[in-house]
Amino acid sequence: MHKLESILAEVTRGMQNVDLGEGQPLDSDVVDSLDHRLKTLRSELELYFVVCVAMILVLFAAQIAIVIVYINQPHLVQAAVAAFGISASALIFLMTRLWRDRDRTATLIVLSTALGKDELRNLLDVMMQAYYPKSAPRARPGVTGRSAQL
């Protein structure tokens, strides 16, 4: 699976020494490739989200079956309920991360077609700094304002 971070890092990698408003805008090929990769990523994230929902439903059905079959063994029922709670919590945490990345990806897809290439380059740089500061290029000389602080 391609992470949104790796896609943004690859696109913004060559922009480290470019000041805002100067330099070359992104090539059409780069924008088309970005759009295709983002759409692929969005569909993958949606699939993973559906898989997580299915796993929660299967876990819930298994818990109900264990409760019904082993109603006279409270320790086993207690263990099944605890296992379901822990597993469901982890899956819900994963689902929130998947949904967040899906929304960011969907936003970038819309903006990649709506913005000009220069504005898109600047947006990708700011998003990389805001969402993934450890992987983002360092602040460029001449960059001021909020994007330099991120």
Please describe what this structure looks like:
This protein has 150 residues and is mostly helical. The chain is built from 5 helices and no strands. It has helices spanning 4-12, 28-69, 74-114, 117-131, 146-149. The protein is elongated, with a radius of gyration of 22 Å. The protein starts with a helix and ends with a helix.
Describe this structure in a few short sentences.
With 150 residues, the protein is mainly alpha-helical. The protein has one domain (4-11, 29-133).
Largest sheet: none
What class, by secondary structure content? mainly alpha
Overall body shape: elongated
Oligomerization status of the protein chains: single chain
Computed over alpha carbons, the radius of gyration is: 22 Å
Total tally of structural domains: 1
Mean pLDDT: 78
Q: Regions with pLDDT < 50 over 5+ consecutive residues?
A: 17-23
N- and C-termini, Cα separation: 27 Å
Question: Fraction of residues in helices?
Answer: over 70%
- Strand/helix succession: HHHHH
User: What portion of residues belong to β-strands?
Assistant: under 5%
SS element count, helices: 5
Number of strands: 0
Spell out the key features of this protein.
single chain; 150 residues; mainly alpha; 5 helices; elongated
Task: Spell out the blueprint of helices and strands.
Blueprint: H1 4-12, H2 28-69, H3 74-114, H4 117-131, H5 146-149
Helix pairs in contact: 1-4, 2-3
